[in-house]
Amino acid sequence: MARHRSRSLVTTAIKLLLAALLLYSAAKLATLVLEHDGNWQASRQTVGRQLQSLALRHADYLPISALGGQLFNRHCAGCHDDPAQRAPSRAALSQMSMESIMVALEFGKMQPMAAHLSKAQKGLIAFHLGGDDSASYQWLAKARCQTAATDSDQPLAGSWGGGGNRRYSASQINSANVGQLELAWSFALPRVADMRSQPAVLGDTLFVGGKSGRLWALDRFSGCVRNSVKLASGIRSAITIEQHNGGHQLLLADSLATVYAIDPTTLAINWQRPVGNSAYSVISGSISTDRGRLYVPLSSYEVAAAGQPGHRCCTSHGGVVALNSADGSVLWSWQSTPPATELSQTPAGVEQIGPSGASIWSTPTIDRARNRLYIGSGENFTHPATTTSDAVLALDLDSGALVWHFQALAGDVWNAACLTGGANCPRDAGPDFDFGASVIISQTSAGQPLLLAGQKSGHIYALDPDADGALLWQQRIGAGTSNGGIHWGMAAADGQLFVPLADPERPARPDYTAMPGLYAVNIDDGSLRWAQRAERGCDFDPARRPLVGLSATASGAPRDLAEEYRCSYYHGHSAAVTATNDIVFSARLNGQIGAHRQSDGALLWRADTARPIETSKGISGHGGAIDVGGQRVVDGWLYVSSGYSMFGQLPGNLVLAYKLPTAH
């Protein structure tokens, strides 16, 4: 009788626990529905991302790797475990990061073989192969710092774009001494071939993230390792530092569109929050912060997925999410298009759904004086076209409401299928002229406030923020392509705007002439001050010209990296530039980093980073293309991330620290 009563009590306790869990889940879902303005699908996706992130964070306690192993044995082992097939072995694949494996399965050489697998199944296989990276860090004990970090929080270089996203940094480096910069130390990130997370500095510590999902805290003077932590997936955004509770916290985003707030001393996670509005959401721009709020830009990689046969295009779009920095709760969200409900057909007769696209690739710009948030958007993926694509948009900081917009190009509807003549290429496809560079707040010599925006078309626009974005002037410095023009960021200083141009030598249109280089224009009227054209500087065989973008990834063709490092096809200025004092740093896709005098563009210093380097900690590393993020300049130091191969550029995995002889 007592035993029966005991069972009854246990059963009752289990029922009560399940009921409590159901009530909590219902309350959580209701809260999410309110946060997503009644959108059940977005709420369900958020719950799914939270569960996914939670599972990856606690993978040691769950059979995730075992499940992935079973899927690998069933679908992949026949080739990869058989030496006669000449496919990479399981051991070789395990040296890749989870994200690199997912790219191969989703877009690369393995896409046809993995087409029958769901995204979740691919993720399990990637975790089985790349989730356990302990063997790659056996050197870590010897690389750890022998002294603790200081308590100082100065210098603080924690906002990538700086005030008004002008990308101007105070430092001791100028035209008189920049030629004395010398390499002080280097650090190689294991299992990484793409460097895209710009570092931040707090006191004597440099924070940098990698696509392997690991966040590093390094002594910024020697490169020794103070601490590291592994997150759920690859770190994409720059590291932003925010003042928090009398101290600071690190803010960053991963490949699952999850935002993290992390303690800079312990690297403990204060909170994490999935913010994506679709299964294709990613965060490419950096997180902006102001007065306890975080502003997070949302982009989408469905623009690339659309190039795969069988993909029904497209349902995803861009947006901005405002979070409370104390706990990550959502304050508001703005969506760049309405939900995809309208049908259209491509010239190939493929049915598509829209509107979609208008991704936000760049870092939002905060205008506290006008209570505005400025963002630039990309093209639509499918019809119908919207007025929010290829545009500069102003949102209200408090509510996220759209206040005004300036659309530079209407009707730009494009996706990656257009690169290969795929069935998903929409009718009347546009040129893919995004605003990938952040909007800059500046003013003329007469004190006229203006916003400066650069487009992949090669256009620069000056807009009046006090007249709903009225056009003040425009200048075009290049013809632009889908992977040319102004890509990731300009810099403003001393009445000039410094503009990098990426243009590859690819005859995309009859009127196209590649004009890669670094340009300076007058902020007052857009007139050209000077131009430094980028020359390849080596003999390149046109027959070796690579495929475009993800087409190169999908081909799986072997690469002669030694020859590519010797003479790179890509050699333009794609990465954002950084200004300091009377010079501007601009890096190139061939791995070169240079310092130019602001007055006339003269090259005063240059370093070649696309080379093998035995790092300061005895680990072999290799530099590569410098793309996306610009350089971090702090007092007498210059920090450079080298390597980016996402679209066929030169792979690499290095953080390089250059210093003046007089620097600490």
Describe this structure in words.
- The strands form 10 sheets. A 5-stranded antiparallel β-sheet has the order 1-3-4-5-6, with no helix packed on it. Strands 11, 12, 13, 14 and 15 form a 5-stranded antiparallel β-sheet that branches. A 4-stranded antiparallel β-sheet has the order 2-38-37-36, with no helix packed on it.
- 18% of the residues lie in helices and 29% in strands.
- By secondary structure, the protein is an alpha+beta fold.
- It is built from 13 helices and 38 strands.
- It starts with a helix and ends in a 5-residue tail after the last strand.
- Strand 36 (632-634) and strand 37 (637-642) form a beta hairpin.
- The mean pLDDT is 87.
- Helix 1 crosses helix 2, helix 3 (64-75) crosses helix 8 (119-130) and helix 6 packs antiparallel against helix 8 (119-130).
Feature tags:
664 residues; alpha+beta; five-stranded antiparallel beta sheet; 13 helices; 38 strands; 29% strand
Blueprint of the fold:
Elements: H1 2-35, H2 40-57, H3 64-75, H4 77-80, H5 90-93, H6 98-106, H7 111-114, H8 119-130, H9 140-143, E1 156-157, E2 182-188, E3 200-202, E4 205-209, E5 214-219, E6 225-230, E7 240-244, E8 247-253, E9 258-262, E10 269-274, E11 281-282, E12 288-290, E13 293-300, H10 302-305, E14 319-324, E15 330-335, E16 342-345, E17 351-354, E18 365-367, E19 372-376, E20 391-396, E21 402-407, H11 417-420, E22 440-443, E23 449-454, E24 459-464, E25 470-476, E26 491-493, E27 496-501, E28 517-522, E29 528-533, H12 550-555, H13 561-566, E30 578-580, E31 583-587, E32 592-597, E33 603-608, E34 612-614, E35 620-622, E36 632-634, E37 637-642, E38 654-659
Antiparallel strand pairs: 1-3, 2-38, 3-4, 4-5, 5-6, 7-8, 8-9, 9-10, 11-13, 12-13, 13-14, 14-15, 16-17, 18-19, 19-20, 20-21, 22-23, 23-24, 24-25, 26-27, 27-28, 28-29, 30-31, 31-32, 32-33, 34-35, 36-37, 37-38
Helix pairs in contact: 1-2, 3-8, 6-8
